[in-house]
Amino acid sequence: VQLVESGGGLVQPGGSLRLSCVASGFTFSSYAMRWYRQAPGKVRELVAGVASVGGITNYADSVKGRFTISRDNAKNTVYLQMNSLKPDDTAVYYCHAPGVSAWGQGTQVTVSS
Fold first, then answer.
1. How far apart are CA 106 and CA 92, in angstroms?
2. What is the pLDDT, as a whole number, of residue 24?
3. What pLDDT is recorded for position 55?
4. How far apart are CA 69 and CA 80, in angstroms?
5. Separation between Cα atoms, residue 91 and residue 60, nearest integer Å
6. Does residue 58 contact residue 48 with C-beta atoms inside 8 Å?
7. Burial 51-64 (b: 16+ CB within 10 A, else e)
């Protein structure tokens, strides 16, 4: 089982980034997927989740209306579109498949002018 994130980087406040997470080693379409983040000195927090079917999503209050989680089961990939980024969004972002207890290695997102 493997999750590989990409798409992080440095962006100015108000900018956008799209994170990707490619999954392998399990039946991706059968499992819910989540994005978490962890800022320096803080606990890891849930950012967004998407169900295996039906497109049901959920978001942390801090990102509602700015972030969008989606998935492409044909590509075994989950995405996190992040718009209107703020300095408080700076963190390492992790992809997680709770049903198989898998975590990615993380991708750094830094929002700074």
1. 6
2. 97
3. 83
4. 5
5. 15
6. yes
7. ebeeeeeebeeebe
What the block records as the tokens of 9 is 């980087």
Considering only CA atoms, give the Rg of the chain.
13
Q: Residue 38 has what pLDDT?
A: 98
Q: What are the φ/ψ torsions at residue 52 (nearest 5 degrees)?
A: -70, -35
The pair of structure tokens assigned to 17 is: 């980034």
Helices (H) and strands (E) in the chain, counts: 0, 11
Give per-10-residue mean pLDDT for the chain (113 aa): 97 98 97 97 97 92 98 97 98 96 96 97
DSSP state of 106: -
Answer yes or no: are the C-beta atoms of 88 and 82 closer than 8 Å: no
Q: What is the pLDDT of residue 69?
A: 98
